[in-house]
Specification:
Layout (H helix, E strand, L loop, with lengths): L2 E6 L7 H16 L3 E6 L5 H12 L5 H8 L1 H16 L4 E4 L6 E3 L8 E4 L2 H8 L3 E5 L2 E3 L5 E3 L5 H12 L3 E6 L20 E3 H9 L7 H10 L3 E5 L17 E4 L12 E17 L4 H11 L4 E8 L4 E9 L3 H15 L3 E14 L9 H11 L6 E5 L2 E7 L3 H11 L10
Parallel strand pairs: 1-2, 1-9, 2-6, 3-6, 9-11, 10-12
Antiparallel strand pairs: 4-5, 7-8, 11-12, 13-15, 13-16, 14-15, 16-18, 17-18
Bound molecules: adenosine-5'-diphosphate, aspartic acid and magnesium ion.
Length: 419
């Protein structure tokens, strides 16, 4: 008997039939003797629908009210799932984030979980109940409803698993694990049995939306046993305990891994870049450009600086596409003040990244990446590297071509087993 936190994403609870299927699955785990805490997302499309409603009233609605609205999606699902469980004779109770005291800071729309009081949950678990918690939401210390950022139900699940010291946190989604890259872009992408926590963190940070970044951070901090699985596959109880061999396990021990050179390819379509040209090259110039950008709350990703033949500097950096206009306006002001020649912008770019702990001990990965892209006539705009990743920025029209070419060049596709 184990204590398992199970999170079901939007597609998995996208219709009443699917909610009934999820209830059947949870019943199987209960019949198997496991204690279950469930976290659910809003039904698929619901959060987007609520965002559209809000924006039809105000393009930039007040953050507090926005959270009150967005959190309603998950409240529908907890109630429906609890009804479906109770109908099956599985005692269940639904709770909003606030009701189980998921305390967050007050950064509306992107709040961080500070604390979870587990005693209420424990009390109900002890009575044999399944606890169904609304993902993606909490309350700040003044009782205001907060939300945790898109994909935030993953973080609710991991945080609950950490607070309850659960045996496993299972993230059920519409794919059966973490793949070498998004299987929607590369159909022959391969499911990974395991991925290191560090690699998963890079993949999530670099755009693989299968897990929210904060969920991975949280799992790493509290060593939460984390597994990504499909909500459409039958649970497999023949293994040591509860479906342990299915899906992808996020592992904290690198040594036991078969060290692949590259574990995965992540990509991010939310990129934009800005260039300020002909800036006088003198100490403090980087600060005078990036300082005002930072002050306007725009996060900067990659940075390149070149000294031109005339001794002036060209400075290029990338930002989230949503911040493109704001950053461009700030930069135009800066350009005026510095006497720079020109400001240029491009919001039709994407970032493609290779991720793998194997990179630490192997040279030549960057050159192979650049050669592969050159063979497809894909021009690289920006490059950045760290110990376990290499990222390039390219024109958005080359995203699929680039990812597929790299996936095959690094031999990541499914191995055909000969009979
Ligand atoms: P949920 O609604 O269950 O939270 P998400 O849409 O947030 O589901 O995440 C699952 C999706 O993540 C998949 O359908 C897939 O298209 C996408 N994805 C992106 N990168 C990967 C990857 N490397 N492995 C698996 N899925 C990925
Ligand atoms: N419903 C929220 C979203 O769509 C949270 C989640 O699904 O994890 O982003
Ligand atoms: Mg998700």
């Amino acid at each position: 008997m184990a204590l398992i936190v199970q999170k079901f994403g939007g597609t998995s609870v996208g219709t009443v039939e699917r909610i009934e299927n999820v209830a059947d699955r949870i019943k199987k785990f209960r019949d198997h003797g496991d204690d279950i805490v469930v976290v659910v997302s809003a039904m698929s499309g619901e959060t987007n629908r609520l965002i559209t409603l809000a924006q039809s009233i105000d393009e930039k609605p007040e953050a507090r009210e926005y959270d009150v609205l967005l959190s309603t999606g998950e409240q529908v699902t907890i109630a429906l799932l609890s009804m479906a469980l109770n109908k099956r004779g599985v005692m269940a109770r639904s709770y909003t984030g606030g009701q189980v005291h998921i305390l967050t800071d007050n950064a509306h729309n992107k709040a961080r979980i500070l604390n979870i009081e587990e005693k209420h949950i424990r009390k109900n678990l002890d009575k044999g109940k399944v606890i169904v918690v609304a993902g993606f939401q909490g309350v700040d210390e003044d009782g205001n409803i907060t939300t945790l950022g898109r994909g935030g139900s993953d973080t609710t699940a991991v945080a609950l698993a950490a607070a309850l010291k659960a045996d496993e946190c299972q993230i059920y989604t519409d794919v059966d694990g973490v793949y070498t890259t998004d299987p929607r872009v590369v159909p022959d992408a391969r499911r990974l049995d395991k991925i290191t926590f560090e690699e998963m963190l890079e993949m999530a940070s670099l755009g693989s939306k299968v897990l929210q970044i904060r969920a991975v951070e949280f799992a790493g901090k509290y060593n939460v046993p984390l597994r990504v699985l499909s909500s459409f596959d039958e649970p497999d109880f023949n293994q040591d305990s509860s479906a342990k061999k299915q899906g992808t396990l996020i592992t904290y021990e690198e040594d036991e891994m078969e060290q692949a050179l590259i574990s995965g390819i992540a990509f991010n379509r939310d990129e934009a870049k800005l260039t300020i040209q002909g800036v006088p090259d003198k100490p403090g110039v980087a600060y005078s450009i990036l300082g005002p950008i930072g002050e306007s709350n725009v996060e900067i990703d990659m940075i390149i600086q070149n000294i031109g033949a005339d001794g002036t500097t060209d400075f290029t950096f990338s930002v989230h596409r949503n911040d493109f206009e704001l950053a461009q306006n700030v930069l135009k002001k800066v350009a005026n003040e510095l006497g720079a020649r020109e400001v240029k912008g491009d919001d039709k770019i994407v970032k493609i990244s290779l991720v793998g702990v194997g990179m630490r001990s192997h040279a030549g990965i960057a050159s192979k990446m650049f050669k592969t892209l050159a063979e497809e006539s894909i021009n690289i705009d920006m490059i950045s590297t760290s110990e376990i990743k290499i990222s390039v920025v390219v024109d958005e029209k080359y995203l699929e071509l680039g990812v597929r070419a790299l996936h095959s060049a690094f031999g990541l596709e499914q191995k055909i087993v000969e009979q």
